[in-house]
Amino acid sequence: MSEIESFFKSAFSVDNVIFGFDEGELNILLIQRGAAPYKGKWALPGDLVYPNEDLDTAAERVLEQLTGLRGVYLEQVKTFGSVNRHPLGRVITVAYFSLVKVGKHTINPASFAQSARWHKLSEVKDLAFDHNEILDSCLKRLKRKVRTAPLGFELLPPKFTLSELQQLYDSVLDLPKKLDKRNFRKKILSMGFLVESAELQEGVAHRPAKLYSFDRVKYGQFLNEGYVFDL
Amino acid sequence: MSEIESFFKSAFSVDNVIFGFDEGELNILLIQRGAAPYKGKWALPGDLVYPNEDLDTAAERVLEQLTGLRGVYLEQVKTFGSVNRHPLGRVITVAYFSLVKVGKHTINPASFAQSARWHKLSEVKDLAFDHNEILDSCLKRLKRKVRTAPLGFELLPPKFTLSELQQLYDSVLDLPKKLDKRNFRKKILSMGFLVESAELQEGVAHRPAKLYSFDRVKYGQFLNEGYVFDL
DNA sequence: ATACTTATTGTAGAATTTACACCATACCGT
DNA sequence: ACGGTATGGTGTAAATTCTACAATAAGTAT
To answer: How far is residue B41's CA from residue A115's CA, in Å, rounded to a whole number?
Structure first.
């Protein structure tokens, strides 16, 4: 085999850290591997990139095949390429994270693995390959990003209460002290792209909260004026 | 050819955006391609990743072969993998940027290209492949990163004046208004990891400025206390 | 000595951030 | 219907940080 040929004995994949927010906690969607290597282990959903497929497209495809969702938030984070990260050959993987609204989809593990389900982030451990490292990178990126871009809204249903929104930020940021309720509301409302609906929360055993929604158009206008989201 | 084999008909490379600061301006180190494709065009220094080489190692190697420098700041930025980005086959490339002190090295283009030299950032245009896009990404990353980590110091010689430091930040950030001199000094000095030397600037036709240096150890101590660099 | 160039320094007003506690309103049991 | 319980909703004062701004100092060049 010529030297140049040996360069082409490698493959690349995408792996996707899919975040969701449920029961006041950050969750991620994992698959259970149905084949060697790491058979039976939980892993990030991912796949080899097709020869004529762009990287972003591959990441979108993985997400869509698993959840049926399209057009969700997706961001490339980092590429992992240690020589021995994959037991079967040289495979480098491009890590993405995506943010989905839990409940708006059905999970279809068939195309990937024997099963797939949401895991509380706090209960995730010992994933296949170098996926723990990948998860750490994506989580770190998410934590930084939610403070400078209104990504939090991607994880919530279209209508939500301010308490839910704060709970999300408390959960994602995982700060030693929770955010102050009054200050949080003041700041987020002062940004001007939350719209109050007439509706109230239902089915709770206490005073129901007002529902708000995120106005993407208004947010876009702020952007044009050089506005910087900063929580 | 089996399907699985077709996945392994691809290669990956690293490309390195090497930033330097010279004559009050941000510069980048480019090579001029000696072979097709894009023969004669200026391009980012890069190379295919060896079969048994980690990505970071490959990026370090490219930098060292070109400049002789080791241990400089290097950060992975993004991976580019459009299907047709390389005329000769499917090659995805992992982009890095590095920060070097101009003047502390000699450039050796031999291993890569017919020539290599520093270019003022403002004069760079029409690079080979998708390298303009890669440069844009790295520049954007640098702009964000210099505000939240003391990266600027990687671009300056060990001893520098506060004016040089500010000039660097003005140049990198490229804001509509320059930073205010008094406020900049106040803020950077209040951080506590700049150490004033007894020496003065030499060879200038005006009042010489005090020289300062960046105390990496002190900065590390701040980090342990949860300090956040924020310009 | 005079002109020239860059270095160095402080303050007051504005804006932002932080800390903090009580009443309101719904549901639920009884 | 009434009291208990749980979360929703709201303002202010003090501290801190940010911003704008200009005059003198210390060298070199002529």
So the answer is: 50
